[in-house]
Amino acid sequence: MSHCIVLCVSSEELIAGQAQELRRGTVVLACLALLDEPQYGYALLETLNNADIAVDGNTLYPLLRRLEKQGLLDSEWNTDESRPRKFYRISDAGTEARAELIREWNALVASMARLTKETP
């Protein structure tokens, strides 16, 4: 008879959790990549999810506010429609940060390809 004293996690759950950790760091770069044109949060959320970058609103909206506080995004309210929406757009500082993050990303992909002996 097998007893589990610690939380038992299936290998599928373990892999899913690790994959989520890998993706989590990509959301910032993905947002910066998509916000050359102003978008409101829900549209950005749909675009990310359609690109297979799984993120939910409870993660995205605080992230957008943090990036704005850091000066990487600018925002403005659109009150032309019945429901006001906050639109986000990458700032000049965000454009510079995005370029550096893309360089870092490409270097990381190349390093991982060498370590795993896979072609990127």
TrEMBL record:
User: Please, which domain of life does this record's source organism belong to?
Assistant: Bacteria
Record-linked Gene3D superfamilies? Winged helix-like DNA-binding domain superfamily/Winged helix DNA-binding domain
- What does the record give under GO molecular function? DNA binding
What the entry lists under SUPFAM superfamilies is as follows: Winged helix' DNA-binding domain
What's in the keyword line of the UniProt record? DNA-binding
Residue ranges of every copy of the Transcription regulator PadR N-terminal domain listed in the record: 32-99
User: Pfam families under this entry?
Assistant: PadR
Q: What is this protein called?
A: DNA-binding PadR family transcriptional regulator
